[in-house]
Amino acid sequence: MSVAASFVGGQVLLAARAPARAEYAGIVRFLGIQVGKLDVDVRLGVEATASLVLAEGPDSVIVATGAHAYIPPLPGADGKHVVTDRDVLLDVTTAGQRVVVVDDVHTQQGLSTAELLLDSGKRVEVISRLFYAGQDAGVTSIVPLYTRLFTKGVIFSPHTELRAIEGSTVVVANVYSGAARRIEGVDTVVLAMGSRSTDGLYRELKGRVAELYAVGDCVAPRGVHQAILDATRAARQL
Q: Is 2-67+196-237 a CATH 3.40.50.720 domain?
């Protein structure tokens, strides 16, 4: 098993960095212990290229290369002050004082990022195209999360979509009326706009190994339960 990072766990560990979600790391700890018991050869810091995989002469290959953050083709989305929710959760960027979080994931992901920013003293406005941000999160999660967010001073702007980023101005519009609004004085824009499958390795290996499987976000970005189910089904077919 090759992992380009220096640790295993992927986006599960990313989620565990958010406030009140540390328990997610337990999934990785448990599976890591089981892998250790089975004496699996784990190679960290190694990019699994097609040539490296084929050099092993494998009978079967399971590709679990995950997904990468989606950046929309909108004006200004490539600005230096525009980052992703992953950047914030991994602490690889320093957000300014006033932050706009664009939530187009509709789960807890964008809201957890907003909470982490609020905890660090930032002023945060969350915009969402839906009736309310985090609409796809379960009710048992969204109620305590909203309670914490409102207590910490979040501003919610539902029915609102991102149109452009013009320096420190974020141009948004009402999804129903089309009426535009300009949010001035923004230091950092955080895009929580979902993922796209990282499936290049799978496509390169297709037709070149006897048995090839793709699992998890490599197939389509989804949750951890679907990823584990994919992996279980693939392993049972070997």
A: yes
